[in-house]
Amino acid sequence: MAEEKPEILRRIYLFSGLSEEDLAAVARLAVARNFPKDAVIFWEGREAQGFYILLAGQTKLVKSSPDGKEYILRLVNPGETFGEAAVLAEDVYPATAVALSDCRTLFFPKAPFLALLSASPRLARNMLATMSRLLYHLTRQLEDLSLKEVSARLARFILDKCQEIHGRVAPDLVIELDISKTHLASYLGTISETLSRTLARLKALGAIAEDRGRITIKEPSLLQNIARGIKV
Length: 232
Prior knowledge:
Structural class: alpha+beta
Shape: globular
Order of helices and strands: HHEEEEEEHEEHHHEHHEEH
Mean pLDDT: 90
Number of helices: 9
Number of strands: 11
Low-confidence stretches: none
Radius of gyration: 19 Å
């Protein structure tokens, strides 16, 4: 690995603020693992052996119904951890993780990481904060799926993506969809045809412009009202 593990870990939220000694101990646990596109990183229902940090690529966490329908619980981007909740609970993985592109990861085995967690109060606080952020994300996602229409879910996704990329939401800012429309539809709890119609509606309203996965914010306030579920 071209870059030293402690330098990589220092930029990850879970390990922020750790002492040099604790950071070095975490780095010693980390195992580099690479996965090609479409590879399964771990399976739902299998005992959690550890968790991962995504360094490059993109990963989806999915649940599948008995009839084979797939629902994307979360899209994991570089710098984010996944699988940590199952490790903390010492339980099975609650979803399947699949590489959406070629992925580079660091893997942290369960037993030594939990031992380190017990010895480091700062790491324990960071893990609690990470779990709180994950819970907030899943709660808001459940609220959107239960109470809001597809247009509101899509508007929220666009706003969040713009904030993530640019640190703000403003007219003429551009985001590139880094996943296929099929995967985005699954994440939003809909189908590709409905997603395409919804994108067309947002364009017709003047909230966005869109061309081949490149979305330009046109009217942020209108997009925010749609995300809140306000009829326009």
